[in-house]
Amino acid sequence: MRTLIYTAFVSLDGVVDSPGGGTGETHRSVGWTFQDIEMVEEAYEIKATEQEEAGALMLGRTSYQAFSTVWPDIEEFATYRTLPKYVVSTTLRDEDLVENWGETTILRSLDDVAAAKESDGAPIIVHGSATLARGLSDAGLLDRYHLLVFPVLLGAGKRMFSDTDKDKQPLRLVDSQAYRNGVQKMVFDVVG
After folding, report:
1. Quick check: 27 pLDDT over 70?
2. How many domains does the chain have?
């Protein structure tokens, strides 16, 4: 079984919306990870590790459509070019997929996600995709969280977790580090 990892830049109040900016975003804090926070190179080392360990990417439709127009041409994401990709969407069509970003499979349901996890291979990394991540968490499909927690309260935006009334989900901290700019890396395994 493959490990499903959600990776996110998150504010202290749980906002994951538009951390690096993006096209067509209307969130008042678009690009918040680059506003008023000193750039500390070592805080982003987890992103390089994710690329080395990933066996596939998983994205929701909105993130796929945003990333697929930019990431294939960015050298720092070169490893992702050839990785298999899963896009979870009920509306995306095969003809909407880009041709220069490797093999892409559209998954239509959380049951399809569960089936993809059953395959053999290295971890599947979920980038962006706040709505998808909330659904995966609520369905108990996530195995690990890779979080870079920024010392900022945004007040508005898409939240990392839903407010669904569900059973407690214990997490085990397996790695952490604080950086001089106040960003904290926190890696949690889902217990159970």
Report:
1. no
2. 1
